[in-house]
């Protein structure tokens, strides 16, 4: 049996409109979707053959390049051996090997891995671990702490801890109990610690969830590592579990394997997804310390973590992650990461004094600049910028008045220069 090709000559963009509902889209106000036909390395190709440099690595996933042959081969071998099996009662080699390899590069206190499918579920599980950890110990701690302007995903629990979701209106009354603190700055950290210390005396906070060093959806806002370290230290003194959401920052983007590697105090729980599987298949992991795991380890069934997703530890996804880790640790990829860091630094030196640039910032391969013009998150000027980049064959996705680059590690020097050129011409346009 095969599907009959539609007889019309309508483009994919036209056919798309009939039955598809896209994320983050108000369809009544949105132009047609662009159909992407294929991708390779740092490039996307649309259905008409026009190429675009993927300047945001398709939401920070395919860091080793699209359709990477090494990863494709490993995954297709795995797919022919074992496609899918229940992970409750069974185990398999890709998951076991991935656990061994990932634990080697995670912060040293991480011991156990719990699988799921996407960044939001990794966060849901992190939240549930933090809440149930205290519950299992007979302590009543039901409030969570999070940073202002954080983003942790779009499922209900993850939405509750995010403050950024601008369109949360219909759900706000249903959210779990969350209190917020500002991200640390050198000027504000003393006040933050004082207020926090007073608040912690009530012993009712279960966990603190944070994007370490870089808040992605907040437009790549960056904060002080030393200040974050002091916050984590204080929270740990008060037995608050620290949950690092490294869904965006993980796997080399900050110049180290994980953003938490820049900070002395290590998280109790870490959420991973996005680049975990090198952009090939959806998967997520929530890792934790032995101490967290031990709070669930009991002769009492009800103390277990009774959470599951059907595709938990999907074998091909595990093999994509294993291949990705091998690439991340290769000398070639580490050299690429350093090359991009140095390249962005040079570009930064050049644009930071441009009259249209308010400020610039960089953390590892993440580079962002704020325009000194007023813009709405999804307004007209934002669309003009987006179209300018796409016309130039560059896929960048400005957030508010921020233009940022988070390109795959395999982006060549020439491709980087093309991205910079299109940003230069955008600056002269706004
Ligand atoms: C993208 C993201 C999420 C959500 O991940 P999804 O896979 O989109 O559900 C959570 N936290 C951070 C920091 C993210 O960047």
Summarize the structure.
With 430 residues, this protein is of the alpha/beta class.
Structure description:
It is an enzyme of class 2 (transferase). Pathway: Cofactor biosynthesis; biotin biosynthesis; 7,8-diaminononanoate from 8-amino-7-oxononanoate (SAM route): step 1/1. The modification N6-(pyridoxal phosphate)lysine is found at residue 274. Belongs to the class-III pyridoxal-phosphate-dependent aminotransferase family. BioA subfamily. InterPro entries: Aminotrans_3, BioA, PyrdxlP-dep_Trfase, PyrdxlP-dep_Trfase_major, PyrdxlP-dep_Trfase_small. The termini are far apart. This protein is 37% helix and 17% strand. It has 13 helices and 16 strands. β1 (36-40) and β2 (43-46) form a beta hairpin. It is globular and about 60 Å long. The relative contact order is 0.15. Strands 4-12-11-10-7-5-6 form a seven-stranded mixed β-sheet, sandwiched between helices. A four-stranded mixed β-sheet has the order 1-2-3-15. α3 (69-81) packs antiparallel against α10 (315-329), α7 packs parallel to α8 (225-237) and α11 (331-351) runs parallel beside α13 (413-429). It is α/β, with parallel strands linked by helices and 430 residues long. The chain has helices at 12-19, 57-60, 69-81, 93-105, 119-136, 156-161, 189-200, 225-237, 290-294, 315-329, 331-351, 380-391, 413-429, and strands at 36-40, 43-46, 51-54, 110-116, 143-147, 178-181, 205-210, 214-215, 221-222, 241-245, 269-272, 284-289, 357-363, 366-371, 394-395, 402-405. It binds pyridoxal-5'-phosphate. Pyridoxal-5'-phosphate binds at residues 118-120, 123, 151-153, 211, 216, 245, 247-248, 273.
